[in-house]
Design brief:
By secondary structure, the protein is of the alpha+beta class. It is built from 14 helices and 21 strands. The strands form five sheets. Strands 8, 13, 16, 17, 18, 19, 20 and 21 form an eight-stranded mixed beta sheet that branches. About 30% of the residues are buried. Its EC number is 3.4.19.12. Keywords: Hydrolase, Metal-binding, Nucleus, Protease, Thiol protease, Transcription, Transcription regulation, Ubl conjugation pathway, Zinc, Zinc-finger.
């Protein structure tokens, strides 16, 4: 039986005075922040009191009013003689006397009650399943005496990928997938249970790949099995010629969804293979958003609206020959993407209310945001066969609220739609079938690395933001759990 507390220091602390009530309040406000006024309080106060930074791994002292990043919270513990702090991203309590994060059943209860409370204010994105170790896992934990300390500077999770002959398009997409936070957490907890042979299931192969990436090894990996499976399941990507990384990314998401649907026994839940809007597979829960199209008749002002699921947002870069100003930033591209366009002349649309073709306006907006927003900057002109190398700036953080659908008869859009950049795929060359792909990935929230096949090198955020950018990956900062 697992003990109620893994730390005798914390057991004494929580049973003294109102320390446990203080912990509950801090958890409610600074870890969960489920309603707007609590999120506002969290945003205004969550910064290191020493360096004024908002991370990485911000902690709140449980014995006084002090917030510190992972470095300055240690200095505070030494200077003030305080032992306990709570990490504000995952809600784990750190004991300075033990030099480690601790387990305690009261902490589990606080986390569960706050998740239940937050469910009243947020729609369901996906279920947060607590880990209940099996008897075999408990025995392994008991017998495993070696401890591995994972610091923010660790390189665990970084592995090069060998180029098998024009497979850089595959390697860079795999690197982005391996560093997608929620996808990583899902596969490392082994939520996939498959009835098929591993070689025939892409979900099994990706699950195994996550294990190989995060087992601490450093030698580069070769992915012939993944390449062969892709060739057999997505024949348009077959062959040793160069392929488009975006096509491979879309094919990978589709195959993961398909194989999940066919093989996964997900606690008796139905996974709809054809109805992507209701699919409960992990791919759709993370990557699927909703794109709303509104067509407004200029004669009767009637509105026709449709919403379609989407895995990414393909953004035009424009051209000087098309007239007007070409976009210079990701925000420019999004503004152009969601700008109303006039449909007249040969483009008139039949109005069901008027009973005839009328001039109208059409506007695309984002109805629902996914956990991971993926932008494809459309650099390849299929008709001309050339690449558009226009410089497009993109930010580390982006607020998607201005680009969401707004209707008078609906509830206001949730206020926190901020996303942070965690991966970028770049292409160098003159066309999609020539050149080379590399990826930049964020590691432990603040460190960035360039993945050039089997070569991994550290870079700065400035280097990433100065790169050309082809596929941009952004992760939602505040998530809603059931």
């Amino acid at each position: 039986m697992m003990p109620a507390s893994g730390c005798e220091h914390f057991h004494r602390f929580k049973t003294t005075g109102d320390n446990l009530d203080t912990l509950k309040w801090i958890y409610l406000v600074f870890v969960v922040g489920s309603v707007s006024h609590l999120r506002q309080m969290k945003f205004c106060n969550s910064f290191c009191h020493t360096c004024r930074n908002r991370g990485p791994h911000l902690h709140a002292c449980l014995e006084c009013v002090f917030f510190g990043c992972h470095r300055h919270i240690r200095d505070h513990n030494d200077d003030a003689g305080h032992s306990f702090s709570i990490e504000l991203y995952y809600g784990q309590v750190h004991c300075a006397s033990c030099g480690d994060y601790i387990y305690d059943t009261d902490l589990d209860d606080i986390a569960l009650k706050n998740r239940m409370q937050a469910k009243k204010f947020h729609k369901r994105l996906f279920e947060c399943i607590s880990w209940d170790p099996s008897e075999e896992e408990r025995q392994l934990l008991t017998n495993q005496t070696k401890k591995v300390c994972v610091t923010p500077e660790t390189t665990i999770g970084l592995r090069g990928l060998i180029n098998l002959g024009n497979t850089c398009f595959m390697n860079c997409v795999v690197q982005a997938i391996m560093h997608t936070p929620l996808l990583r957490d899902y596969f490392l907890t082994k939520h996939h249970y498959c009835k098929s042979a591993q070689m025939a299931c892409l979900v099994c192969q990706i699950s195994e790949l996550f294990q190989q990436f995060y087992n601490g090894e450093k030698t580069p990996l070769a992915l012939p099995d993944l390449l062969h499976l892709t060739w057999t399941q997505a024949t348009h990507l077959c062959g040793h010629k160069q392929h488009d990384a975006h096509e491979f990314f879309m094919a990978t998401l589709n195959l993961l969804h398909k194989h999940y649907s066919e093989n996964t026994q997900n606690q008796n839940k139905t996974v709809h293979h054809n109805n992507t809007g209701n699919c409960l597979c992990i791919i759709h829960q993370i990557f699927t958003g909703g794109l709303q199209s509104d067509v407004i008749c200029q004669s009767c002002n009637g509105i026709s609206s449709t919403t379609d699921p989407t895995w990414d947002f393909a953004l035009d870069l424009g051209s000087v020959t098309e007239g007007g100003r070409s976009p210079c930033s990701l925000l420019d591209c999004l503004e152009s993407f969601t700008k109303a366009e006039h449909l007249g002349g040969k483009e008139q649309i039949m109005c069901e209310i008027c009973g005839s073709k009328q001039d109208s306006t059409k506007q695309l907006t984002i109805k629902t945001l996914p956990v991971v927003v993926t932008f494809q900057l459309k650099r390849f002109n299929s008709s001309a066969g050339v690449k558009i190398s226009t410089a497009i700036s993109f930010p580390e953080m982006i607020d998607m609220t201005p680009f969401m659908s707004k209707r008078k008869d609906e509830l206001p859009v949730p206020s926190d739609n901020r996303y942070s950049l965690f991966a970028v795929i770049n292409h160098s060359g003159v066309s999609a079938i020539q050149g080379h792909y590399v990826a930049f990935v964020r590691h432990h929230y603040t460190y960035w690395y360039k993945c050039n096949d089997d070569i991994i090198t550290p870079v700065t955020l400035k280097d990433v933001l100065a790169s050309e950018g082809y596929i941009l990956f952004y992760h939602k900062q505040v998530l809603a759990y059931e």
